[in-house]
Amino acid sequence: MIPRIAITIGDFNGVGPEITLKALSRRSLLQHHHFILIGPFDIFQFFRKKFRYPVSLEKVTEVPKKYRRAIPVLDIPTATAGDISIGRLSSTAGLCAGRAIEYAANLCRTNVVDAMVTAPISKEALNAAGFGYPGQTEMLSALSGNQKVVMMLISQTMRVGLVTIHLPLRDVSSTLSIEKIFETTVIVDFTLRHDFSIRTPSIALLALNPHASEEGLIGNEDLTIVKPAVEFLRLQNLKVSGPFPADGFFSQWFPNRYDAVIAMYHDQGLIPLKMTARNSGVNFSAGLQIIRTSPDHGTAFEIAGKNIANPNSMVEAIVMAGHIACRRKLHSSRNRPTIDKSKAYI
Fold first, then answer.
1. Are strands 4-8 and 150-154 parallel, antiparallel or unpaired?
2. Which of 58, 112, 204, 246 lies at a CB distance of 3.0 to 4.6 Å from 258, suitable for a disulfide?
3. What is the DSSP letter of 224?
4. Alpha-carbon distance 198 to 214, whole Å?
């Protein structure tokens, strides 16, 4: 099977078009995948010519049934090269990014393509364009019928799932619940089994507070929320450990110590992952029936338009999307994880 992958343009004032075209300049990717770019043809062509990337592009109005040498670009006429303002915030760029995500998600839902890879967006530009989502993960959950989705960041040595995503730190504690931790971990366990072919995943859960609350001396969330969630997960016969104090846990980390780590909030898990990933991490939306990956970085406005952005994370996102698509085709498994409510948190 050669997976068909849609790649969205992202924020065209950032590094999205650059890292996409750099990645597709690698012959090995073109040999093992079929691609369709989603976004204004004029803008992709602008960056291709500006930096002389060795790829050929072809404007199309629908996904071709037969792929040729040129990479098809599903033209979305929301902007032109004249709208490019490199390194600057623009609602036009936000509109373009949002429309591309919608198109790609629809292609995945209707099985026209097997997976989608999203280039980095500006959340501020996306909101300025009228898309009321804190990020692409939440947007794709809504576009998929509000399916439960877990943001996972994945590198060669670590997989991290997040219980809460794009929240101010002051709101994390009040948002956290036994149910939310339970559902997040069940989805991650299911994903590891079905999308990564790990028969019996081993998962570590991090504590929320320093020193895992010191038996209630530093907050009580770990005693009243995280620890009970771990106990309920074990009743489901999941192989889980914790809650572990995050600082001590990562100080003792070695590659693939656990198949996944569940972090209570964004930076708790993503700082160590990105430090060790070295520009090769991948953002994966676990739990969705569609397959979506993304580079693990943002728009990088400060270096946009200089042709110095590292495409490795985009390359890894493409490869991972292709591998997961092939596994799902092989196993024909897109069922959601089932939960035995009689042993759960209610």
1. unpaired
2. 204
3. I
4. 34
Q: Which CATH superfamily, name and number, covers 1-147+288-331?
A: Isopropylmalate Dehydrogenase (3.40.718.10)
Q: Is the pLDDT at 23 greater than 60, yes or no?
A: yes
Residue 255 · residue 272 · CB < 8 Å: no
> Which tokens in the block code for residue 210?
């320093």
Q: Which of 121, 107, 158 shows the shortest CA–CA distance to 275?
A: 158
DSSP letters spanning 280-297: --EEEEET-SS-EEEESS
Q: Does domain 148-278 have CATH number 3.40.50.1580?
A: no
Check if the beta carbon of residue 151 is closer than 8 Å to that of residue 139.
Answer: no
Dist. CA 341–CA 227, nearest whole Å? 18
Give per-residue pLDDT as tens, 282-297. Answer: 999 999 999 999 999 9
CB atoms within 10 A of CB 158: 24
pLDDT for 284-339, tens place per residue?
Answer: 999 999 999 999 999 999 999 999 999 999 999 999 999 999 999 887 645 555 55
Give the list of residues 6+ apart from residue 137 with CB closer than 8 angstroms, or none: 149, 151, 165, 283, 285
Cα–Cα distance between 328 and 312 in angstroms, integer? Answer: 24
Residue 338 to residues 190, 228, 236, 327: CA-CA distances in angstroms?
Answer: 9, 20, 10, 20
Six-digit token pair at 144?
A: 């998929």
Domain with CATH 3.40.718.10 in the chain: 1-147+288-331, 148-278
For range 31-39, the mean pLDDT: 95
